[in-house]
């Protein structure tokens, strides 16, 4: 057997190849370390960008809340002054016209603020639904009532067709009303004076279907796919007579989705009107007998303690309540208001939250700690759910966002405040 020849260990070709392979491996390793460093840096940058975006979103929401608060404060006395003008005797026709203009525009500004804030709250997940059995007819009636002044101002014809007036939904009464009032307001806004708007509701095994149809300006094919996107609006004239912020339909879509439903928009094009259809699932609705009407509220004068640091708000609200025969004592800061409350003799407390020194939350905490049971209503320019929750947790019975609807406040005081006073143990 022949002996096998062993290759020389120091063969030049083999050593060169090994060195080349080692150099290549080192280069690959260096590139891998560099790529890994880039990946780590990219991950850090991405996290930083996410943190900055979340911080920017928080700042945006805080800014919007502050903006609403600052704008609602001047709206409150304007709204109350308009309500006082309505109750003044022997008012001239010109003054009535001016009062109506002030009331309509104040309500319009308040709705714009609400839509803008709701869009921010929904995007940050801060809206929670209060699901209860709600008569569909009641929701639609409230929506119609909200937009009726605008419809009448433009001499438009609103037709309402409800095929199942006894239908009861499971949903959030306030938010469902907002959905349909936004759709009706949108239809009126884009329909010419004297135009036609129709609200129709039907129900079957598949669910509830509500449509809002108009014969207005219609929606172009290029805009229709984006009509529910935030800040999306159709083409405008230079006069921008339609107004709006482009958030109403976005709020509608999100609120409907939160109820497990869908909403769709349709138009045959510019100049051919539009139709919006809301479908709510069958699982959230059932045919039921109409709920009995609530008993009429019997008016009774109350002794009211009003604490509000904004002089214009305080004076106009005091004057308005006194026009309705309520006895009102006012204080312009929390310390003075608490001292008056400690003297007793009041049925109702109406208190601003943002008071200097002793704020409204601390006022009600001290009153409740002292055993006071008087009916307490909080007023605030902040309308987020957490703001309301904080006020109720502190001891307030109701939480109203400025500008307050005067008639709603009167109804609340007459029905709850004075009734509570007659209960045993009330102070």
From TrEMBL:
Top enzyme category: transferase
GO MF entry, a single one: phosphorelay sensor kinase activity
Gene3D superfamilies listed in its UniProt record: 1.10.287.130, 3.40.50.2300, Histidine kinase-like ATPase, C-terminal domain
Coiled coil region boundaries: 15-59
Keyword Kinase: yes
Positions of modified residues (4-aspartylphosphate): 352
Name this polypeptide is given: histidine kinase
Record organism: Pseudoduganella flava
